Amino acid sequence: xxxxxxxxxxxxxxxxxxxxxxxxxxxxxxxxxxxxxxxxxxxxxxxxxxxxxxxxxxxxxxxxxxxxxxxxxxxxxxxxxxxxxxxxxxxxxxxxxxxxxxxxxxxxxxxxxxxxxxxxxxxxxxxxxxxxxxxxxxxxxxxxxxxxxxxxxxxxxxxxxxxxxxxxxxxxxxxxxxxxxxxxxxxxxxxxxxxxxxxxxxxxxxxxxxxxxxxxxxxxxxxxxxxxxxxxxxxxxxxxxxxxxxxxxxxxxxxxxxx
Length: 259
Ligand SMILES: [Zn+2]
Known about the structure:
By secondary structure, this protein is of the alpha/beta class. It has one domain (2-257): Alpha-Beta Barrel (TIM Barrel). Helices cover 40% and strands 17% of the residues. It has helices at residues 18-27, 40-52, 72-81, 104-120, 133-142, 160-168, 185-193, 223-233, 238-252, and strands spanning 2-7, 30-36, 56-60, 87-96, 125-130, 151-153, 172-175, 199-201. The protein has an 8-stranded parallel beta sheet with strand order 1-2-3-4-5-6-7-8. The two termini are 14 Å apart.
């Protein structure tokens, strides 16, 4: 059985079809999905979905592009639900320097605040990083004491050097559909070298749909295309791959062991 550690079933493209998607997931052996928040509203929605559906868990966080949403209402909400068995992580949080204008200092401040929150509430983290690897690694190193609950760098496509640093910090990565793209030369080379114990799987749906459905709306039932590709690249029998990745995932997000 497969776990999708980072999916946006709370996105308007998917939320109307959640029940159909969950049926597809059952057919495709996807038994657990972490629905990740990226702003206040989507975090509330992720929490609601996790309470409504057995297979759905949630991660609550403010993405660097929505820093204005990190307010008392959000903080109080997360604190009030953090002990729920369905709230498994803080995220997605991080840095994104892709679309100017952006306020680096503000992004860093809100990121560190959420690292503190994850530490305080004993939850692992889901990190988003785009065009900000240098700052990200610096901040994680400076705040290593806040990382005791571990977590993932989601949609990882960085360098081998970054991967090494992520490992040193006790974090894992999640790999999405990009690895199946025909032009994904760098990611493919990287994935060949990633230690198996660092890998978890994600869709980041509705985005980054794996080949052969690239261009369509993604959903967690497509995650096996990504898994099969990675197992192939690493020359590991698919059953063994699924077992190892599941162990990594349950180790990283211990609350997924509930039910
Ligand atoms: Zn995401």
